[in-house]
Amino acid sequence: ADLFLTGLGREGQWYRFHPLFRDLLQRKLQLTLGEAAVRQLQLRAAAWFAGEGMIEDAVRLYLTGGDQDAAGELVERQMFPEPGRPAPHGPPSYWLRLLPAALIDRRPGLSLIEARLASFAMNIPALEARLQRVEQLLAASGGEGWSPPWPTFGGDLTMLRGTLRYWQARPAEAIAEMQHALALGTVPLLAGQALLILGNAYVAMGRYDEGVQLLRESMAGRSGPPAQLQLVSHLLALCSMH
Predict the structure, then answer these.
(1) Using only C-alpha atoms, what is the Rg of the chain?
(2) Which of the four, 94, 159, 184, 238, has the lowest number of CB atoms within 10 Å?
(3) pLDDT tens, 28-82?
């Protein structure tokens, strides 16, 4: 009957209160429950949005409700989804722009995501600055009460360190970091980048044949769909070396 409502879309499944009625309800809410209760309702709504996969709405409500860390953790999970979960829509920088700069600066996971974006853009000063910030945060935590925001955090951090060493013309250190990163395990996208830089670092040291042999040995015996992506990464690394 369109009573106090405005329809959204053509499907007739989503509705919004009429703006005047909404303002009346929000005013009554503030007068009867107070700011603290309103924030709790906002956080409950944020959790519901997150559970329904409506990430941007959830992030905005977490921030409005005063739980910045919940917003940051949600973005971290979006940027490094669990196996079997789809990757987020839109460029990674979009998700970071939803968050306050101060929040990014105090969370190792978000700072590492910024370092990853800097590496893709080949922005060496930004990569170095972000990695230094991650190291500072980890040192300050002392390992107490802190757990990695995603399983491959250590490998991803090591791989980005190796990237920086390679761009700083320190190929021996880059090789050591990349081999350590691959042993720890990284997200697939960074694993491909690690192989690429690892191969080029061997070339930079005049160890071309050794690098080719290493890459070919690591390709042996791989099969199945996940291995196809690894095979492509190996072949790209060999092409770059050639």
Answers:
(1) 23
(2) 94
(3) 998 999 889 999 999 999 999 999 989 999 999 999 999 999 999 999 888 775 5
38: its two tokens: 């309103």
Instruction: Report how far residue 133's alpha carbon sits from residue 139's, in angstroms, rounded to the nearest whole number.
Output: 10
Give one DSSP letter per residue of the chain, joined into a string. --SSEEEESSSS-EEEE-HHHHHHHHHHHHHHH-HHHHHHHHHHHHHHHHHTT-HHHHHHHHHHTT-HHHHHHHHHHHHSPPTTSPPPSS-HHHHHHTS-HHHHHH-HHHHHHHHHHHHHTT-HHHHHHHHHHHHHHHHHHTTSS---SSTTHHHHHHHHHHHHHHHTT-HHHHHHHHHHHHHH---HHHHHHHHHHHHHHHHHTT-HHHHHHHHHHHHTT--SHHHHHHHHHHHHHHHHH-
